[in-house]
Amino acid sequence: MKVMRLLRSVFLIVLALALARPARGASRAECQSMRSAILGHPVGYCAILPPSYDTDKTRRFPVLYFLHGLGENEQILVTSGGMTLIEDLWDRGELGEFVIVTPAADSSFYINSLSGRVRYEDFLIQEFLPFIEKRYRIRPGREGRGIGGVSMGGYGALRLAFRHPSLFSAVSAHSAALVENLPAALTDDPMLLRALGNAFGSPPNAAFWDRNTPFAFARTANLSGLKIYFDCGADDELGFTAGTRALDNLLTSHHVPHEAHVYPGSHSWDYFAAHIAASLEFHSRAFGLPAREGQSGAHH
Question: Of 12, 61, 113, 148, whose CA is between 20 and 30 Å from 46?
């Protein structure tokens, strides 16, 4: 009997401790679409909601807009194994809780196209951000809003953050499509020429490209209040390593604090998967969320 009473007491203590802890549910992904008047058609998106989203109904969360690359879509993090990586970071307590949203962008490069037919930047800023931040419990204001991406999405994230630094508190990019000299870069690459056609004209308009690159906005914008992280593989077969180093040098010459890395690797999912934790932890810190320090690196 004494043993049974002891076990019962232990059980009650454990139960009381469990009930005293804040409720923590499971993270989940929600993929839906919204109607866009600017684009004239529905736009798909996926939102990854953190573990406490469904259990703490009064809490508002920061949001990271994560932009996919060329040939990918809004499900890039949900179907590729990215969500498992994110959930593992949450489970290990290495990442604060924030919402991650990816919109479908086709081959828009997240800009208003040269032809004027695809006003993707206008859609994103004027329709998508307000829609998401009304639909989900998002912390209001710039400090709770970050943007990141991979490849074409890295280009889009850097460009949008540099162009609209009053909207975003932090930006990250992996293997961003950073090309300084467009004609030279495309001379022998017909596939890339075709991919750029929807946004930049066919053949791509070099002057329009130059006006829209992250480099153009980095040279003129006040980026002093923007937290910046980007990396690229040393063997990026699309040539984005040189652009990454050039942006690093440009920001350094303008005395803009940032974190930039060139790591071993190519332009591949394996490279992205190996480094996404670093950018997510970067955003977690930028949001001021409690989490263990992430991957260390050089700061400029």
Answer: 113
In the chain, where do the E strands start and end?
A: 28-36, 41-49, 63-67, 99-103, 145-150, 170-174, 227-233, 259-263
Residue 203's pLDDT is: 83
Say if CB 89 and CB 277 are below 8 A apart. Answer: yes
Q: How far apart are the first and last CA of the chain?
A: 67
Contact between 96 and 90 under an 8 Å Cβ cutoff? The reply is no
Angle at 209 between CA 207 and CA 212, to 5 degrees: 110
Question: What is the Cα–Cα distance from 159 to 235, expressed in whole angstroms?
Answer: 23
Q: Is the peptide bond between 203 and the residue preceding it cis, with omega within 30 degrees of 0?
A: yes
How far apart are alpha carbons 68 and 105 in whole angstroms? 8
Joined tokens for residue 76: 């890039």
- pLDDT-wise least confident of 4-18, 90-104, 161-175: 4-18
CA dihedral of residues 196, 197, 198, 199 (deg, nearest 10): 60
Tens of pLDDT, residues 123-152: 999 999 999 999 999 999 999 999 999 999
Concatenating the DSSP letter of every residue in 249-269 gives HHHHHTT---EEEEES--SSH
User: What type of residue is 68?
Assistant: H
Q: What is the pTM of this model?
A: 0.88
CA separation, residue 119 to residues 126, 166, 228 (Å): 11, 20, 26
For each of the domains in the chain, give its residue range(s) and CATH number, in order of start.
Answer: 25-286 (3.40.50.1820)
Q: Say yes or no to pLDDT of 186 above 70.
A: no
- Please report which helix (H) or strand (E) contains residue 276, including its range: helix 269-286
Return the C-alpha torsion angle 198, 244, 72, 124, nearest 10: -60
